[in-house]
Amino acid sequence: MSIAETSDEMKETTPFLWGASGSAFQTEGNNLASDWWHLPTISGNSIFAEASGDADDSYHHFDEDIQILAESGLNAYRFSIEWGRIEPSRGMISSAEIDHYMRVVDCCVRHHVEPIITLHHFTNPTWFSELGGWLNDESPKFFESYVRAIAPILRQDAVHYVVTFNEPNQLASIVSLMSALQQGTIDTNRMPEPDEKAVVNLHAAHVKAREILHTLAVQVGWSLASQAFETADGSPLSELRGAGANYVSRRETDFLVQSREDDFVGVQAYTRHLVDDEGPLSVPARARTTDNGWEYYPPALAEAVKSTAAVAQVPVLITENGIATTNDEERIEYTSEALKRTSEQLAELAVPLLGYLHWSLLDNYEWGSYKPRFGLVSVDRANHFRRYTKPSLQWLGDYATNHPEGLLAG
Questions:
Q1: In whole angstroms, what separates CA 10 from the centre of its chain?
Q2: Low-confidence ranges of the chain (pLDDT < 70)
Q3: Catalytic amino acids?
Q4: Percent of all residues in the chain with a pLDDT value above 70, rounded to a whole number
Q5: Tens-digit pLDDT profile for residues 245-286
Q6: pTM > 0.85: yes or no
Q7: How far is CA 48 from CA 9, 54, 155, 280, 377, in A?
Q8: Is the peptide bond before 360 cis (omega within 30 degrees of 0)?
Q9: Strand (E) or helix (H) holding 119
Q10: Helix H or strand E segment including 231
């Protein structure tokens, strides 16, 4: 079957997914058996301002969160399973935690929400990291055992999409970052290159997981940190040479090529990244920036979708897109422009766009700090974790209701 025929078939059989995303460690709270729980904060050479702690207590509030999402008009929720909860000690599988995530899936079904499950969102069980993490040659086998253990969660009548790894290109760089942090050689101005051994092991784990998941009749892919690379002078990326070409290939292109055997690939885009032959460039002077210092650049999503589809050649699911801001009008402005620009690109794609998932449903723990606010819903962590919906949630829900067939409709 040709790509065009595949595209037509999926458009006819797959409803467009309009939703929001989150991750276990960033929202659940008290993931005591996960490696990030033990990272130092505000001491020594730590780059982490604060610990995750109780997070948003979504472990106990997931029903409320899913109901809020559904009542807004959205129909999909991407969440992750915390490996450290499932297997807190090597070989010890928690039936109670498997039951917990089964109840999350059941909750999605009850609210007519498509559960999109991520199996690994940056964090590892502490025991796994103590054995070397993704640098251990046995790591793909450890991950395989975990995937087999959680099969009961992935009900064939309820779960249709599984993301094996969240941003494996970033995860492999985090492996390098942690090594640099331990050695005191960290460069806070630049994310290190993905560790080559970690890349090999992550891909091996992904392939094995895909084999297992296909026996459960689910569609499988991984989601990539989509860089929306641009050259400073506007020349084609194909003309990049030297360190710049290597930078683009190592951080994105290589992973997109590996995605060609998957059922879909996740795009996670927030801003563009400028490069030249020497490598990455800083945010342009006087550029408008978001609360976490990224350039305010809504077209990044459209550019990432287009470049991802061209290289990976499989259906695309936007698994993350959003903006760190306390100004909710700015969030609506950014999202509206991102969707408009993406819609304008869709006619040129040879593969389907499966859906759009906003990052994030909740204001949550952003890997070292609670200050960046990406959420469509705020959480008063000091007042019984009360949830307050923002106008941007209803705006996106109304947009989804008015575009049930996707961005090309209307």
A1: 23
A2: 1-14, 43-45, 181-190, 409-410
A3: 167
A4: 93
A5: 999 999 999 999 999 999 999 999 999 999 999 999 999 999
A6: yes
A7: 46, 16, 37, 24, 24
A8: yes
A9: strand 114-120
A10: strand 229-231
